Amino acid sequence: MNEIYIEPLLEVYDWETMDPKDRWDQEQLIELERFLELEQLALMQDELEQIQQTEAVQTLQQEQRNHKELIQLQQWENIVFLIQQYNQD
Length: 89
Fold this sequence. Notes:
Largest sheet: none
């Protein structure tokens, strides 16, 4: 028989023949593992949200720097234009 079919059957057999206390312990262990998996998912979600918030703040800060640099460039161009106008007169 193929091992793919045998392993689940053995697991069911082991489960059914298990001592009730051992079965209860195993159920508690399975429940704890599921809880830990959910906790891990929650932590990963929190981390992802923090990363997204950090990236959003960094993007906003970069946009503000770009805007400030654009204003400075426009002011510089205005100064150069005014100097050229002054020199032509």
